[in-house]
């Protein structure tokens, strides 16, 4: 892994471009302790969650009622299994289930080993069963209860990757998506933000009752609430979608200015990717351990990232891009994380290209390439689609972020910019509200482009590494030509790649050599000795590149 202290910055992977921080990764102030990845139970599909939660200023204990609507897809089931971290004997944190019922009747259950096994009678395929779970406890993770940087009490959901189970009974895997409703009862002094649309908000005496609901299916990793004292502002609307900023009152001025950059970013993505999927976009200052967490329609940003005087354009763009890829189209399983993080990373670069010009994207990709090279040097056997992990947090590295972004950048060059955008839109439309794998994405791009992309995807997503290309050139004065020779020197087998060569400057002459093996050579019309010969002048190839004049 690259030598980078993840605690130093708001995200893990920093890209410095022209003095601005261009972000291409999640990063963390503190990584969660490793734990096994939750796996979905075959034969069930949760359709909807309704969570009623009571929060208090006098204790960190939460009182919860979860109403879970589950579709049964198999006749062989004897139980429905949900993830819920239990309270260990003698422990102070964890959840205890008080009761489970269905249609007002008690249902047999067992809560052990952090699993809630519900055993109703007569489970059969085709049924939709509704269970009401009453529980309580002090969450040790997932719902972060504490104080913010100003010393004020706050409550923030922080579920990525599979930490919802610390405070919500769920199928805690990104492949089981469901609609969700949060009914929050809290002291009246707090404001409450969550996914979806605000349905009800009222104060009775010293208590506030708030109801948020989304009818767009979400993975549990992005189902959250945020409860704090907020200053709230509407930064604008984009095609009828309100773009809100929620910041601590102490950070009102700079915070609202910082998050107020969101509307043009949302507009760019909506124009190019398709309709924004949610009822609103709330950008929220929070105590998330991440620099930015893409919770659906309620993005949480690190409290130190907001109003710190830094340019957060890239941070906002990365998280807003996730509303399409990661939230609405969700990777089928963790090895395909690049379909979320690589997309958000590259779409950030595309927004910078739109807003600041082509040079900004080239600088962005150059910095990303350096990080990919550094990571590969330390992890030479790790492919983009990595199935060797034991905990999803192990995948928080350069591969799904910067290398994933680079794969998309090269795919854009492979199929053409217009076709690339059409492919992204088609992928979104086809897998909206569902899950997709790398193979699924490839199939869409092949359909849209009319090209066979198997070799491209195999070498860039399944193989580790990248080409290391050493070039030499010499001028043949008698022939009026330059002889350019390229050789791949990496330990891995050769990659099949096009390599652009530029001769001279302002303007340069370019030619492309397609490498199908270790070596390629070309003779280029060159009446005079060029002032320079460079490889990949437009930053189109993920490779280590060098060029020298032959002696």
TrEMBL record:
The GO cellular component terms are: cytoplasm; extracellular space; membrane
Superkingdom classification of source:
Bacteria
Q: Which InterPro entries match?
A: Aminopeptidase_N-like_N_sf, Peptidase_M1, Peptidase_M1_aminopeptidases, Peptidase_M1_dom, Peptidase_M4/M1_CTD_sf
A Gene Ontology molecular function term of the record: alanyl aminopeptidase activity
EC number(s) on record? 3.4.11.2
Cited CDD domains: M1_APN_like (cd09603)
So what does this thing catalyse?
Release of an N-terminal amino acid, Xaa-|-Yaa- from a peptide, amide or arylamide. Xaa is preferably Ala, but may be most amino acids including Pro (slow action). When a terminal hydrophobic residue is followed by a prolyl residue, the two may be released as an intact Xaa-Pro dipeptide
Cofactor(s), names only, from the UniProt record: Zn(2+)
Q: Which UniProt key words apply to this protein?
A: Aminopeptidase, Hydrolase, Metal-binding, Metalloprotease, Protease, Zinc
BP terms from Gene Ontology? peptide catabolic process; proteolysis
Q: What EC class is this? A: hydrolase
The protein's name: Aminopeptidase N
Native organism: Salinibacter ruber
């Amino acid at each position: 892994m690259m030598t980078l202290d993840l605690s130093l910055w708001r995200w893990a992977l920093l890209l410095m471009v022209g003095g601005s921080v261009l972000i291409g990764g999640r990063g963390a102030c503190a990584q969660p302790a490793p734990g096994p990845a939750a796996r979905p139970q075959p034969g069930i599909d949760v359709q909807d969650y309704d969570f009623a939660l009571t929060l208090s200023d006098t204790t960190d204990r939460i009182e919860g009622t979860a109403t879970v609507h589950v579709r049964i897809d198999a006749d062989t089931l004897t139980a429905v299994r949900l993830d819920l971290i239990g309270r260990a004997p003698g422990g102070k944190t964890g959840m205890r289930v008080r009761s489970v019922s269905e249609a007002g009747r008690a249902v047999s259950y067992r809560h052990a080993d952090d699993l809630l096994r519900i055993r109703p009678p007569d489970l059969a395929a085709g049924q939709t069963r509704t269970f009401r779970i009453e529980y309580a406890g002090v969450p040790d993770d997932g719902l972060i209860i504490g104080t913010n940087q100003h010393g004020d009490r706050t409550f923030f959901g922080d579920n990525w990757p599979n930490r919802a189970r610390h405070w919500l009974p769920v199928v805690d895997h990104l492949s089981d998506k469901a609609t969700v409703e949060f009914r929050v009862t809290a002291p009246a002094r707090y404001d409450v933000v969550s996914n979806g649309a605000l349905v009800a908000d009222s104060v009775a005496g010293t208590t506030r009752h708030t109801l948020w609901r989304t009818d767009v299916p979400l993975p549990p990793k992005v189902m959250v609430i945020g409860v704090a004292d907020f200053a709230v502002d509407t930064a604008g609307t984009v095609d009828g979608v309100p773009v809100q900023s929620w910041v601590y009152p102490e950070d009102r001025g700079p915070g609202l200015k910082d998050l107020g950059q969101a509307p043009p970013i949302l507009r760019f993505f909506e124009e190019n990717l398709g309709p924004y999927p949610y009822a609103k976009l709330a950008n929220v200052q929070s105590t998330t351990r991440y620099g930015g967490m893409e919770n659906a329609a309620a993005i949480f940003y690190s409290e130190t990232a907001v109003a710190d005087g830094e340019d957060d354009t890239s941070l906002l763009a990365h998280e807003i891009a996730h509303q399409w890829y990661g939230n609405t189209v969700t990777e089928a399983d963790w090895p395909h994380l690049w379909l979320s993080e690589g997309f958000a990373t590259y779409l950030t670069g595309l927004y910078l290209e739109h807003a600041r010009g082509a040079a900004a994207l080239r600088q962005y990709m150059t910095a990303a390439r350096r990080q990919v090279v550094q990571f590969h040097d330390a992890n030479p056997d790790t492919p983009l689609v990595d199935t060797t992990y034991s905990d999803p947090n192990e995948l928080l590295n350069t591969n799904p972020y910067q290398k994933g972004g680079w794969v998309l950048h090269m795919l854009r060059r492979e199929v053409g910019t217009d076709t690339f955008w059409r492919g992204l839109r088609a992928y979104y439309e086809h897998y909206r509200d569902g899950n997709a794998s790398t193979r699924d994405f490839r199939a869409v791009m092949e359909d849209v482009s009319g090209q066979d992309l198997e070799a491209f995807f195999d070498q860039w997503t399944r193989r580790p590494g990248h080409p290391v290309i050493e070039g030499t050139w010499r001028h043949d004065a008698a022939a009026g030509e330059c002889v350019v020779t390229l050789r791949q020197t990496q330990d891995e087998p050769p990659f099949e790649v096009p390599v652009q060569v530029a001769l001279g400057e302002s303007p340069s002459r370019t030619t492309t050599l397609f490498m199908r093996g270790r070596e390629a050579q070309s003779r280029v019309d060159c009446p005079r000795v060029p002032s320079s010969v460079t490889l990949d002048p437009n930053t189109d190839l993920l490779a280590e590149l060098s060029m020298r004049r032959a002696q």
